[in-house]
Amino acid sequence: MYTPLNKEQYAVNLRATVKLGKLSETESIAALQRAWVNTRFQHPMIAVTDDGNNLVYEVPDSTKLSDWIGKSFLVHKGEKVTEFLLTALLQDYQTLHYFPETSEILMRTHHLLTDGIGAVCLLDRFLTYLSADETLPIFGSEQLRLAPSHTEAAGISTVLSPSAEATAEEVFMSFVTKMPSVGLPILPLSKPGGTKVFTLASPLSTLPKLLAAVRKHKLGVAAAVQSAIILVTHEMAPPALAKRDFSTIAYFSHREYLPNPYSDMAAWPMGLWMIGLPLSQPQADFATTANNMQAVYGQDLGIDTSSTFEWYSGFSARMAKLLASPMPDNVPPPTQPQLSSIGLLDGKVKAHYEGKVKVEVESLEPIVDMMAAQIVVYQWYEYFDS
User: Fold this and answer.
1) Is the pTM of this model over 0.85?
2) Of 220, 222, 224, 245, which is closest to residue 233 (Cα–Cα)?
3) Beta-sheet pairing, 73-75 with 95-99
4) First-to-last CA distance in the chain?
5) What architecture does CATH give domain 3-136?
6) How many CB atoms are located within 10 Å of the residue 322 CB?
């Protein structure tokens, strides 16, 4: 719905502060560009376009490669990341942005091409190529590495039995009848502005205490954070929504459940290999809410062990149709915060990459473009080398 405004909902951004040894600004730009080209060769999905019905990849000649670089690798002199995000426009390709004054990069991905975990793993691949600083590749075989769809990679059938179709309809209707969800008070917007970013960080010394506390109560971090979000939303909700259930979609990375080779996140960071399941929670105390959320976030999502995938494609099809339809005039827009749990970053991105170019990662932050008057809460934790 934001395409006519040249804006993108849910573009996945990874913001990182990186130090590139003793390279000058000019040398840094050249090295970043070489690494970006090598990233395309290894992971060609970053150069896929959407023609409205299909994802299209074109093997480039030198002219087309130069054109792609000009459109996808951008240097922002005299601009800050936060300023860019307020005015960021829809791009044809996945893009890499370099901000020399703050030594930051921003990797910007269409969400239809990968999920948050995939974007983190792609950043690791890019930083690996940046550190190696290899010569430019010869294109012509990279299309063999285009990622399949989730259903193809996972081997999930999209042809449902009558009983599975009935279950999909039951799950879908049970969810949509819980809408609208409890939500936060908002100011009316005449048109989307841009994405604003707020970061709440705890010191490293807090992390062992947090992990010990959730283990003591047999919870995961995502379940605990989701429960806190639900309680605070109920506390802050306007009267018209205060008694409503908290209803949203819970997101799960499905990469670890995929068969080889797609479970190898280093080899296959690209691919939208996540699932979204309905979550609805009535107002309750923290302990009750947390136990219910653990049942959601701790569930087994094995392809061969979970009954979810008997009906999931039918549920997804119904949700896609719903989201593509105009919202009824009498239904308020969704304002409940959404949680995206990235989890532990260590092992996905390194603090140091020791190659021809010494790359040091000082900070890393996932961000998503949000055009609606809504909050997305990214939750992650890291040790790195601290």
Assistant:
1) yes
2) 245
3) parallel
4) 43
5) 2-Layer Sandwich (3.30)
6) 13
Among the listed residues 78, 75, 129, the one whose alpha carbon sits nearest the alpha carbon of residue 105: 75
C-alpha 39/C-alpha 66 separation (Å) is 15
Domain with CATH 3.30.559.10 in the chain: 3-136
Residue 366, H or E segment: strand 358-368
Q: Are 350 and 203 in contact (CB under 8 A)?
A: no
**Amino acid identity for residue 376 in this structure:** V
CA distance linking residue 74 with residue 92, whole number of Å: 13
pLDDT tens for each residue of 1-60: 788 889 999 999 999 999 999 999 999 999 999 999 999 999 999 999 988 889 999 999
340 - beta bridge partners? 378
Q: What is the CATH number of domain 154-346+373-381?
A: 3.30.559.30
Instruction: Render pLDDT for 155-182 as a digit per residue (tens, 0 to 9).
Output: 998 899 999 999 999 999 999 999 999 9
Question: Read out DSSP for 73-130?
Answer: EEE-TT--HHHHHHH----SS-EEEEETTTTEEEEEE-TTTB-HHHHHHHHHHHHHHH
Whole-angstrom Cα distance, residue 227 to residue 225? 5
Alpha carbon separation from 309 to 35, 112, 204, 244 (Å, rounded): 38, 20, 38, 29
274 CB contacts (<8 Å, ≥6 apart)?
A: 115, 116, 117, 150, 251, 252, 253, 254
Q: Can you tell me which residue has the tokens 């018209």?
A: 240
Q: Could you give the CA distance from residue 337 to residue 200 in angstroms, rounded to a whole number? A: 15
Decide if 171 contacts 311 (C-beta within 8 A).
yes
3-state secondary structure of 240: coil
Identify the residue with better confidence: 59 or 189: 59
Residue with tokens 């930083």: 127
- 228 by DSSP, 3-state: which? helix
